[in-house]
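Render this sequence as a predicted structure.
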Amino acid sequence: MEAADRANANEAREADAVRVAEPEQHQDDETDSNAEDDENEEEEEEEEEEEEPIPTPDDEGIIEYTYPRDFVGRRRLGRRWQDVVQRRYFRLIIDPACIDIPYAKFQNCKYLIEIVYPEGKDSKLLRIGEDAFADCHNLQRMNPFPDGLIELGVCTFVGCSNLQGRITIPQSIRFVCESCFALCKSIASVVFESSTATTIVVELEDDIFWHCEELRSVRLPQNLTVIPSYCFHGCRSLINVPIPGTVQTIKLRAFAHCLALRAVDLPESVIAIEGRAYRGCSNVVSVTIRSSTNAVQLGRNVFGDCPSLSTIKLYPWHFPKFFEAMNEDASFIYKFFHQYHHQILDEEAELGMVTRQHRNGRRRRMQRPPQKKQRLQG
């Protein structure tokens, strides 16, 4: 009997425990339900925001703000754009008296659709700082930068994927910093205005136009000496980039994966082409290297993965360097060695030697400068 009573008592306690636990489980279910409702409401609000149509700069009734006047505040750098704009699409007008647009001032501003810089010589703008307009995904248009601008900072317009049309950079520019226009996938052309000053050299840093996929033509600045690494990497629509006669070096992967590029014509000034500079340019048909100096340097795999390449024009003494640079690509070596072997194996053409019949019947060699007598081969 005692054992049966203990068993009954245990069963009763377990039943009580279950009954006590049931309200807690119900409370947890209610909490989870409320959390799910809150998440659903947030998702619905986000969907409503995404569905709002994005205006174009030509639409009527676009709100305008002037920088820095409308962004003056107690903070050292003024009011944040989030405090001024309040979720309204707007056009930003840069006041002629503005000297500098500071670091990250409008970064991630999805409501900015147009920038209007002052025209003529009234502008005092000298610098647009790092990340100033980075990731403004709905920025669609801006007029030419004002004359007098000296510096475009690091990542100034990076990720402005809807910025369209032509980018005009004034002759006063001295520095265009790293990744300035990277991932601006919709810009069509870039023009560096010509400068009358022959002693001024524009300094371009790496990745400036990285993956600008709709970029078709570029006019580079005068007196440019270096095309930096990854400058046009992934610009798959690029077809026209005349290389100025002052450029000496084309750096690592500068034009890699420019799929629309069909011809590479390098002026006499170019003496160094670094590794993979034109790798993956699958539609390049011809390459011309016009320098005759023995100082020409070719980096590793400089024209790798260029299956359409069929014509190479250069001085014959450059072929050994060319094949050494491409020694990782067996198909390239096979293709062009058989095409140009008569030039490659001709020691006299390679070394710039000529022969003359001696009066005693022997042939002797006389050396003369190849750059004066040889022609571009190919």
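Summary. Confidence is low (pLDDT under 50) at residues 15-27, 347-373. The first strand starts at residue 63 and ends at 67.
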